[in-house]
Amino acid sequence: MRAFDYIRAGDRAQAVRDGAGPETRFIAGGTNLLDLMKLEVMAPERIVDITRLELGGIEETADGGLRIGALVTNSDLAADARVRRGWPVLSRALLAGASGQLRNKATTGGNLLQRTRCYYFYDRGEPCNKREPGSGCAAMGGMNRILAILGTSEQCIATHPSDMAVAMRALDARVEVEGQDGTREIALDDFYCSPGDTPHIETVLAPGELITAVILPAPAGGRQIYRKVRDRSSYAFALVSVAAVVEVENGKIAKAQLAFGGLGPMPWRDRAVEEALVGEAPSPALFDRAADILLTEAKGHGGNDFKIPLTRRTLAAVLSQATEAAA
Amino acid sequence: MSLETTRQLKHDTPDHDRRLDGMAQGVLGTDMDRPEGRLKVSGRATYAAETHPEGMAHGYLVRAATIGRITGSNAEAIRAMPGVLHVLEDERMIRNAAQGMAGESPVQKQGQSWYVGQPVACVVAETFEQARHAAQAMMVTIEPDGTHVFDAEAEGVEVDTPEKKQVSQGDLDGAMAEAAFSVDHDYRTPSMSSAAMEPHASVAQWDDEGRVTLRGSYQLLRFNKNELADVLGVAPDKVRILSPYVGGGFGSKLGLAPEAVAAALSAQVLGRPVRVVLHRRQVFETVTRRSETKQRIRLSCDADGKLTGIGHENLVSQLPDEVFSEPVAQGTHFQYAAPNRVVGHNIARIRRSATGSVRAPGEAVGVTAFEIAVDELAKTAGIDPLEFRLRNVPEKHPENGKPFSSSTMEATLREGAARFGWQHSQPRQRREGEWWIGTGMAGAVRVNMMIEAHARVVLTGQGARVECDMTDIGTGSYAILTQVAAELLGFAPAQVETVLGDTDLPPASGSGGSFGAASTSTAVYLACMELRERLAAKIGVKETELTLKDGVATHDNRQTPLTEVLGDEEWRALGHLKPGKAGQEVRQATWGAVFAEVAVNDVTGETRVRRMEGTFAAGRILNLKTARSQCHGGMIWGIGLALTEALEHDPRDGHMVNRDLAEYHLPVNLDVPQLGVHFIEERDDWANPLQAKGIGELSICGSGAAVVNAIENACGVRVRRLPATLDQVMEGLIAQG
Question: At the top level of its lineage, which domain of life is listed (chain B) (predicted)?
Fold first, then answer.
């Protein structure tokens, strides 16, 4: 770990001002950042501690949605009765992630900004365009079991590791941020960047912009499922995960909101898949067609080729479960 | 202090006296709590890294990023960094840990990086953070020295085939050709890590007389002492090692490792104590690992399911110049009888980190693969796999005709089957929603070993003290040595103090190869028998007529408190066990049977173990609780071996890719169901005067096979490349349609 300056922000304005400095990071739960700093994978010169800011609490919004403060812990969010009632897919996704101890520390804002778990990103002895732009990607010809099959570039095949963000993307969440120019809301759909030639740039956040809350629209209803497939029963990142909000009316799919973890550099959502499902009667053939659309551009890198059939099968099982009783 | 007398046993013959059965205290074999348990769970047991001698500096190892000749470094710049006290680039640094029981310096040959991740320097600073940062900034220049091979199965790999390790009896090819049923498959097990909870750590301190004290985390102190002395070039009496508590070893702490050498050398240069603790990633990378294996197994049997041929030909990996190689077929030599036999042992010299002993070297992977093959042959022959094994219980050692010291294979199979409720069934018969349910079983076997051990017992009228350099690596040494002494000398366990983990005490066996409990307990037994003789002589009766219980000697219908017999005296006796012919005239082994029920997801190929039952026979059980804990641990290792654990090496340079506990998947609580453990009570007179055998490793040998066999029974998919990750099972499910 390199020496760094530590600033405890007293208010948001200070946080945003100090956070805009060069080589600066906000810290809340620190469950990811501290590990990366010890390994010197990340080496900020300045840390702005936001844990004393008034960014906690879960409030209902005027349109029946929820405003989740950035500092709400994963544990508290998962346990919130309103979340469990109206957005159960979010609660289940949270509980599928990390461990009890980590969920007690990890925050909503921080979870959205988790860095990839790519083995080579963590290893300073190896080239990684995300860690050190221009150095190359060791994962391509190396061990890539856990890495991405969608949305990758020639420079990076890392996945986004969050479960929470997958559910939030399926739920059309928006991210509320505050910067030196004021506050703005960003749809989660627009929050993450494709790696392209700049895999080190992961979100659209400007320097100093601070996540203050995540906004969920009114409950989506339908049947909500979070299914996570991984290498052991708990405490492992998703090989594939599916967050599904599906509603069937009169034998036809009336609503389908689907997001995927473990497949891409961001929680993945493909509207074309949903469009193909809506208005149709659920059937194995339909689910297969949905998988075809989802996986059109899918590209394996050897060690992760299995994710393609695994995604197809998992999606079909989730859609089958989401539609069977009602069909 | 009174006279210390010695009782020595050269272990040549069986001991049919079974003296422990006649003792009166009644503490041996119970589920007594560990005497040091409270210290451990309340954080008061001081592990190596937790000692902070005054003036201690902190060292952090520097890893080689490539392979080749070391030509320079930026050490000068590193020395100028904040807090840096010393950059150690000493020729005596070791490239990997010593192998277990080496007793001398491991391969040194510094100036060269043999594998990616090798420790090549150590940066010492005032604080841990300064040392770590400076070590991460250190650049060692390495000139490539040619192309290297990183995969044991690669073309052109250099392979050693030591003649002594090949066996050929009869005509296996003929047996295979004529067999009613046969199987011939390759099985693969991955590179694995012991992943002990406590990272390796050493604190070294030199005194004015040129003597170094190392607080470390080691398993075999009397060997480690000589190893460190040899590395440093000092006499062994200039080295003292303290390891009173060890947070898990599993073989990873058998031999002196780079962090201890770096700490000792740095402390010498600086004239102040130096601590070196391995980062978790360094634990994975620099500690000896279990070799990956490729095992070709050929089995043939007649129409009745009687084995006629056994072939077990293995390929393991190792760095150049290391003597150890994973003894894959160790159990195969005697587990099953068949007249036609081939055992092959091949060592590929590749540039991954060094391999070494990991819990149950040999059988853990060898019996696992072999028991999968046996399951395949039983299935091919259409015979219940339990019945198949029962038909092939060997009467004597099939290769050399020697008798078994005890044979409990059949008993463990039958008892285990009854406890589990074993019923043979065809694959793909039970379904619960998306999940296929199936059961599987396997035999377990592990060689039993004894090694030389000393222990001192000090007796007073009020109690006793056991002293030796034995280690407790979580296994329960403190408990069982206390119990042995308490039982023989007639004291409550609270009146017996056991002091371990200090090389200034008599050299015991140390912990490894499941030999620790039996070897060192025997030394304690001998010392106690010596003291019993002296008590009997003083009282004026025959030792065999003396009953000792609760601090009172009963003899000739009279009772004399030991306080009266000893007065203020302190009697000392040294027990000394020397292994002898008893280890060679018979085959000593421990046996078991493991049964498992699993659920396999038809969509994803995920496997969940739902139930597991292990039945084991390992001679006299010294402490039911710690023995059961050992078996729980071994069975969980079996789950890891079957389903989750694999060190992944980069194909381009062999470096370990998933070197942390997030990506090296040990089973977590949710992966482990309720585990049943049952012991078959046994007295193995050949083992030692306690009739006790090793229990630490047995339960891992076979548990993984039971799980893999259950997967096949559940869903019809046979996995021959462990671990049986979901992608492999899913691909099998897809292939079945």
Answer: Bacteria
